[in-house]
Amino acid sequence: MADDFDWNDIPLILALARTGSMSATGRELGVDASTISRRVAAAEKALDLRLFIRDSTRYRLTDAGAVFVAHGEGVYGNVQSMLLASTREADTIAGPVRISAIDFLFDHWLVRHVPALNALHPALDVHLLAESRNVSFTRREADFALRLAPPEDDAAVLMRKLGEIGWAVYAAPKFAHVPRAGWGSQPWLAFEETMAHVPEMRWLARLEPRVRVPLRVNSLSTMVNACRAGAGMALLPCIMGEDDGLRRLSGAEVYRELWLLSHRDAGSIGRFKAVAGWLSQVYLDSRAGLCGEERP
């Protein structure tokens, strides 16, 4: 077959074979009869075949045309089946969805909402990937990522700010009596110096008098456990609550933005649209607690 044959002409040729009339084919396909005539002529030229002959009443298939139509019906039917199956797959809310986030967002917030998602869409296969590194949507390392800052460079990423998360002062029960004016005299927990730029560490650096930091860590989960053990006071996300040996001693002192990242193509696939909507709704339902407006 010639390389310049237009596959879009197959349904046109099939329709003309059925009707035997340019005008009837035009009405069926919603195009001018002149367009039908021009496209048939172009197809015959590209194929170097005569597909139709015209007698006094109608267009009739040549022997070569009959062979073309016999195969063309199968090809066109397979294409339609392919498109229908692809559309159904795109609309189906089933299959794997990988969500990357900092571990505390899973542990203290999102996992409690996953059962409702599973009940609503039981065919979903949700993967929660606890990590803070920048994932590549170009390389499809994740389908969604929840981050506290947008990525600097990823051509495939679609970014949407969900809202904010508040950070408040927490401590073990033995510090619960310490008034705000006395915070500067207490031991505090902090991240390693390499993380001095994050907003919560900048807030800590501004406390007066300059606080003593007997313990530095490189993960939030370690800081939470050290705070619970009584090693010092800490600025932690408001979603930590006051259970498991932690006491919240303030309202929100710092706010950080929460971003939902996804691949630009995710909006055209059913399961990704469903999960994106679920993440947005879960944030809205949890916003007061996340921002520290109410005690979780």
Automatic annotation (TrEMBL):
One of its GO terms (biological process) is DNA-templated transcription. Pfam families: HTH_1, LysR_substrate. Gene3D superfamilies: 3.40.190.290, Winged helix-like DNA-binding domain superfamily/Winged helix DNA-binding domain. The keyword DNA-binding applies. Residues 5-62 form the HTH lysR-type domain. Belongs to the LysR transcriptional regulatory family. This is LysR family transcriptional regulator. The lineage of its organism: Bacteria, Pseudomonadati, Pseudomonadota, Betaproteobacteria, Burkholderiales.
